[in-house]
Amino acid sequence: MILVTGATGQLGSAILTALRRRGVDAIGSSRQALPDMRRIDFDDPSTISFDGVDTVVLISAGEAEDDIVIARHEAAVTAAERDGVKHIVYTSVTTAGDHLAFAAAHRWTERRLERGTATWTILRNGLYADLFGSLLTWNGARLTSAFGEGALAAVTREDLADAAAVVAMTPSDHVHRTYELVGPPITAADIAHHLNVSLDGTSLAARRAALDQSGLKPFQPAMLMSIYTAVRHGFLAQTGDELTRLLGRTPADAVSVAAAVASSRRLT
Ligand SMILES: NC(=O)c1ccc[n+]([C@@H]2O[C@H](COP(=O)([O-])OP(=O)(O)OC[C@H]3O[C@@H](n4cnc5c(N)ncnc54)[C@H](OP(=O)(O)O)[C@@H]3O)[C@@H](O)[C@H]2O)c1
Q: Which CATH number fits domain 2-264: 3.50.50.60, 3.30.2350.10, 3.40.50.720, 3.90.1310.10?
């Protein structure tokens, strides 16, 4: 049986759906007590049971400081080893993401898997297309971007979910493989063109000042600023063909996904 953690989340739920669409015996886990889901909270190791599970799809439990995220992942991997899980599929971040403020917890987890007892596959996921759209802002009817002319090799969650399902269904074909799952590069200008709106640039300093005023959690502005600067300065633009090969098809159009999210955030 396959178990997908973080299964109420956007990526985990899409992976579960992708597996079930293919007729695979899969369950999800969540911190919440929900029907048809195992209750697992990585912050409380006593709740973690992978009994009867052959393959765990370990969705990174980010959105916290690195020490918290690393403790969560350590607890999950240790429990998987204890319970006899054979294979762990981990959703990491793209290699080019080494420049991002949240990369350390991903790379730590990859190393933990490499020295562990279960076999593994690492999915080095590119940044989500909808995240790119959500990081653009509006000034009235004009789109504003701190990405400069930089491009992001963006990818949709649905494509990442399909790729994860392909791997989890046939783990023996993907033992000790690390996949670089990035899509075609997109820019803020592509989004503005798609939406037929004008585009203004803004500086990193101006963007940081706005984020500092927006009531985010303490670690979040640094996280987001690292995305802006990495895209702006060309670190996240490089694409590849491993996503296409795993999917057996062309990845979905990231521009329309990012544009839809940007558009939904327009106030006027
Ligand atoms: N590639 C990218 O662009 C990008 C962007 C943002 C985030 N990420 C990473 O990718 C992950 C999945 O993305 P997403 O869009 O699905 O995020 P999401 O919708 O926020 O879902 C994250 C899931 O993590 C689970 N989680 C959080 N704390 C947990 C804990 N203590 N124990 C067990 N599970 C916990 C939650 O599951 P339950 O609520 O069901 O327990 C939550 O549903 C994120 O967690 C983050 O690490 C990647």
A: 3.40.50.720
Q: Which atom of ligand 1 is nearest to the CA of 7?
A: 40
| 92 touches ligand 1 (CB under 6 Å) | no
Domain ranges of the chain: 2-264
Mutation test residue for ligand 1: of 3, 4, 5, 93, the one with most atoms within 8 Å of CB:
5
Looking at the whole model, is its pTM more than 0.70? yes
In 87-236, at which residue ranges do the beta strands (DSSP E only) sit? 87-93, 119-125, 137-139, 142-145, 151-153, 177-181, 185-187, 199-201
CA distance 70 to 250: 34
> Residues 239, 177: contact at Cβ < 8 Å?
no
| Digit-coded pLDDT (tens) for 72-129 | 999 999 999 999 999 999 999 999 999 999 999 999 999 999 999 999 999 999 999 9
Question: Rounded to the nearest 10 degrees, what angle do helices 103-114 and 66-82 cross at?
Answer: 20
Q: Which residue's CA is the nearest one to ligand 1's atom 1?
A: 127
Question: With a 6 A CB cut-off, is 94 part of the ligand 1 pocket?
Answer: no
Is 150's C-beta closer than 6 angstroms to any atom of ligand 1? no
Q: How many CA atoms lie within 13 A of 211 on its CB side?
A: 22
